[in-house]
Amino acid sequence: MRQFMLLLVVLVVGCGQDQQDGQNQSPGQDQQAEQTRQRPATRAAPPAATPLQNNHAQLTFSSLPASAVTEEGWIVVTNCNVALIKDGDVDIPAQEAGVLMKFHVREGSVVEAEADLAQIDDADAQVRLKSAELELSVAKKEALNDINVRAAKKAFQVAEAEWEQSLEVNKNAPGAIPKTQIKREELTKDRAKLQIEVAELEFEVAALTSEVRKQQVEVGGLSVERRRVKSPIAGVVEQRYKDVGEWVQPGEPIMQVIRMDQLRIEGFLRADEVFPTEVVNKDVSVEVVFKKAADDAGNQLLEPFAGKLTFVSNQVQAGGEYKVWAEVKNRQTPDGQWVLRPGMVATMKIKLAD
User: Fold this and answer.
1) What 8-state DSSP symbol labels residue 248?
2) What is the mean predicted confidence (pLDDT) over 133-160?
3) Residue range 82-113, pLDDT digits in tens
4) Within a domain: residue 26?
5) 3-class DSSP state for residue 238?
6) Would you say 66 and 347 are in contact if contact means Cβ atoms under 8 Å apart?
7) Interatomic CA distance for residues 2 and 184, integer angstroms
8) Are residues 264 and 323 in the same domain?
9) For 220-242, what is the mean pLDDT?
10) How do residues 244-289 score in pLDDT, each as one tens digit?
11) Left, alpha or beta for 251 (phi > 0: left; psi -120 to 50: alpha)?
């Protein structure tokens, strides 16, 4: 009986050890399989089992390699991200404080650069602008009014003539006119001459005042204009942050507009496969597949998008990869919808040969 129990214990321990050995080996095997599956392809031609399709063939994400390969003078980068270009995503802020009175567009509206998007209450600004315009009208009339100058010149001529006449009388009849009177007439003449200079100075000041009033009108017009919320870029209204009747502060975003006519295609290359200087400023062709069904029969390959590689990162990451991106021109469907959308996954072919 004791021997039987010992034999049973040995069998149980042996089975447990085999099971533990199997569990210890499984993660390593899985990791090795995963590394083999994710290992990037080399610069050699792709294997016959997963050939690259031409521009007129059907292409699916499942048939694409994991990273860059080379075929007929092209470097093919799979799993690229479609993104907005720099300055292609703008949160448009309020420039002046006030109440939002109305919106001219809604989400999804296509807008041109400088198009009106919304209106902030400008009643107070309009009143100030009108006041400045009236002050400018007065200043212009004063700037054109030289009556005082002409009157001062006439007064000087009269005073000078009286003084000269008194001198002539005393010359013919000495002492006929007292010297004090002649002195007063001379003073009147000099004062009239100075009055000409005063009138001319006032005339010049009136001209400068007119320019000041003109600038005040421009400031008032700018205050009114800054309450018109405009789009700085041509694009599509993606999001509205405020509603009619809400109070907004300067710098507070009201609406988001994104640019869709030109997009960025971002991908990664391995430095040990493709040297960075090989791809700088190279032409690219971008392919996108719409998956309509689980099998390849229902998928659709879009006509390629042409562009140029505009950025090659100077930094190589720890995994040996460096980032590149190209800018391509988007296009619209007959009903006005953009084909490429940020967030899509695309395949980018970089042309090596000129």
Assistant:
1) E
2) 93
3) 999 988 899 999 999 999 999 999 999 999 99
4) no
5) strand
6) no
7) 154
8) yes
9) 94
10) 999 999 999 999 999 999 999 999 999 888 888 888 888 888 888 7
11) left
Between helix 179-225 and helix 123-144 the angle, nearest 10°, is 150
Range of the domain at 105: 95-120+232-257
Place of tokens 């009157």: 151
Residue 286's closest CA among 302, 269, 268? 302
> 146 lies in a domain?
yes
The edge-to-edge listing of strands for the beta sheet with 235-240 is 89-93, 253-258, 235-240, 110-111
Whether residue 169 is found in the same domain as residue 313: no
Residue 19 corresponds to which amino acid?
Answer: Q
Euclidean distance between CA atoms 44 and 176, whole angstroms: 125
Give the distance between the most distant pair of CA atoms in the chain.
Answer: 174
Residue 82 lies in a domain: yes
CATH number at residue 46: 2.40.30.170
Residue 27 lies in a domain: no
The count of other CB atoms within 10 Å of the CB of residue 50 is 13
> Could you tell me the pTM of the whole model?
0.64
